[in-house]
Amino acid sequence: MRIIVGVTGASGVEMSYYLMKALREAGNTELFLIVSEGARLTWELESSIPLEDLYALADHVEENRNLASVISSGSFVTDGMIVMPCSMKTLAGIVSGYADNLISRAADVCMKEGRRLVLVPRETPLSRLHLRNLKEAADLGCAIVPPMLTFYNQPQTMENQIYHVVGKVLLQFGISCNRFRPWNGRDGHV
Predict the structure, then answer these.
(1) Fewer CB within 10 Å, N or C, the chain?
(2) Best CA proximity match to 77, nearest among 20, 177, 2, 160
(3) How far apart are CA 143 and CA 137, in angstroms?
């Protein structure tokens, strides 16, 4: 597989590190990483993991301002893209087709070529404008996978919660994550 990962400046940038680790562990995936300037700033504020550790998980690190990158063309075939986290600014750019940077252009390419585009929006509360843009993205064929807390899998750590979201994202591509604990059902009535 060939997957593009875009990281924007919304809170939760460290989730992208766990996503990239899971993709690397799944194997057989060529990874293209784009980190926005906002994501770099947010990373400094939120994460104790060196940003270089995220870059090291990628096969290719692309500059967000490089609209001449190979992934900005539909003739370069990928299996799709994940934007994690997806800021509301990036969401607005994607749904309006305003491709002024490589993250939004690569997303635009995925949509026009009929490839998977998974958005992990990170904002709360959501305004009517945010909700309208999320609905528009879904109507355009994007998968919307917000990083919702999950309790049925008995999470003990923040990492457990993050890997649950990562597992849900990877399921959109048919990829298994060994740290994801899906619902296995229950006998009887609740």
Answers:
(1) C
(2) 2
(3) 8
